[in-house]
Amino acid sequence: MANHQLLVLAGDGIGPEVTGAALQVLDRVAEIGGWVVEIERADIGGTAIDTYGDPFPEKTQRAIDKASAVLLGAVGGPKWDQAPKRPEAGLLAMRQYMGLWANLRPYHVFKGLEHLSPLRKAQVDGIIFRELTGGLYFGEPRGRRFLPGDLEVIDTLQYRRSEMWRIIKLAFEYARDHHLTLTSVDKANVLESSRVWREVTDELSKQFPDVPVVHRYVDASAMDLVLNPDRYQVIVTENLFGDILSDLAGGLVGSLGLLGSSSVAGTPGTRGLFEPVHGSAPDIAGKGIANPTGAMLSLAYLVGWSWSESEAQQLIESAVAESLAEGPHTPDLGGNASTEEFTQAVIQRLEHIWQRRKIS
Ligand SMILES: NC(=O)C1=CN([C@@H]2O[C@H](COP(=O)(O)OP(=O)(O)OC[C@H]3O[C@@H](n4cnc5c(N)ncnc54)[C@H](O)[C@@H]3O)[C@@H](O)[C@H]2O)C=CC1
Ligand SMILES: CC(C)CC(=O)C(=O)O
Ligand SMILES: [Mg+2]
């Protein structure tokens, strides 16, 4: 009987609501799969600041050390916007602590939700490989420097070639395995880091002669993703650009609540951090109406990647897709279902799919 250790970091805002929904799905999947899942919980972000005065406390680090996978909700909120160390800093520190340099963010229009995409006729189906532990979010020096009569602020965009190499190579491998085009997004007309990014992409391209490669500037690709999303299949880009373009992808498919993600260190079967692409959504937190799809898909990626349970991954993804096709829908998708109602629909679908598979 499989035994898995899961750490749940529900976080702030809608984090507890969407991870709670995903855990209900996990309960049923574990029952079907005959697994024992030991679930531990710890604090991250704003709730960790409230309890420990630190957005990524030592206790959470120790809990990560013991887990075989981590499911995260979201962090942040107006309550902590002026905190000396913000909740978001805890998430960044955790990604770095876990060494998770690759962030995979798939997006596609679900059957039944075509009307929600602003681009009803175009094919919207891709995946963003976002570098996760380098660039502007981590570079030093950073901060404020008081000058006579002025203030200077510094953020540093810093990368090592090796950090670029590993994420671009991972994206090439994915594009090769799925026979897709790779688009490398940068700002090589301005940034030195982007020029090296392009050099690395061109060098790696020689190892993957079957993968068509396109270079695009980030500003132009933001425009082009909206006008011609069908040109994009696999996107590889650095940390900040990937963060921005993945929210744009959320818009392309109709709601940010629909996207899940995997943050990993490149090798399947190893520990990763799995979280929806969205944030803590303070505007809807506590109302019971958050769309838990992103969290459920993140759970699906978790069981597939860290626990090598590919059948369970497929089961969750199918149950979510069928529920989105049939409804009910949460308000972000134009419906009036609660998080709980949608979650129950997914669990029912799961049962149906499982029964169908047992019979056939
Ligand atoms: N990974 C994380 O923990 C992230 C945290 N944040 C933090 O979250 C806080 C809020 O940031 P925002 O810019 O407002 O971004 P957000 O992603 O939380 O929300 C943007 C918009 O999308 C909607 N939305 C997001 N997720 C949804 C869901 N599951 N169902 C239905 N609607 C959903 C929200 O209601 C809001 O209108 C900030 O403190 C920010 O720093 C932001 C992004 C990622
Ligand atoms: C809140 C940030 C630390 C991260 C973010 O927006 C993201 O990972 O999508
Ligand atoms: Mg983001």
Structure characterization notes:
The protein starts with a strand and ends with a helix. Helix content is 42%, strand content 21%. Strands 2-1-3-12-11-4-5-10-8-9 form a 10-stranded mixed β-sheet, sandwiched between helices. Strands 6-7 form a two-stranded antiparallel ribbon. The protein has 2 domains: 211 residues, Isopropylmalate Dehydrogenase, CATH 3.40.718; 136 residues, 3-Layer(aba) Sandwich (Isopropylmalate Dehydrogenase). The chain is an alpha/beta fold and 360 residues long. It contains 11 helices and 12 strands. The site of 1,4-dihydronicotinamide adenine dinucleotide has 22 residues, from helix 4. 2-OXO-4-methylpentanoic acid binds next to helix 4.
Task: Summarize the model shown.
With about 350 residues, the protein is α/β, with parallel strands linked by helices. The protein has helices at about 15-35, 45-50, 60-65, 85-95, 160-175, 190-205, 220-225, 240-255, 295-305, 310-325, 340-360; strands spanning about 5-10, 35-40, 70-75, 100-110, 125-130, 140-145, 150-155, 180-185, 215, 235, 260-265, 275. The protein folds into two domains: about 1-105 and about 255-360, 3-Layer(aba) Sandwich (Isopropylmalate Dehydrogenase), CATH 3.40.718.10; about 120-255, Isopropylmalate Dehydrogenase (3-Layer(aba) Sandwich), CATH 3.40.718.
